[in-house]
Amino acid sequence: MITCVVDYTIDATKIVEFERFARRWLELVNEHGGTHHGYFLPAEGASDKALALFSFPSLAAYEQYRRLFGQHPDFVAADKLRDETGCVVRYERSFMRPLLPHDSDA
């Protein structure tokens, strides 16, 4: 399993627009082979930081999902929402390997 962590810098005045964008990606990841663990939005502290975490069974499965970017009409529409509203200032992706409670020591 591989987990993608997306670290967002958002426009704090456009949180409603960011939530609409995020809700759409929650659906898209789950519809296309992944498991979305949610978006984590500002509550206290920095008001312009948000995170998203979602997993795919393998890097190959994630890459298959990524091939839909710029091609699949739902992906294009979700990116258009981000771009037209300006709710995301920048974002950075990193990949992690989760250690889960049921994982063995071996």
From TrEMBL:
Gene3D superfamilies recorded: 3.30.70.100
Superkingdom in the source lineage: Bacteria
NIPSNAP domain boundaries: 7-99
InterPro entries: Dimeric_a/b-barrel, NIPSNAP
Protein name: NIPSNAP family protein
Species whose genome carries this gene: Jiangella asiatica
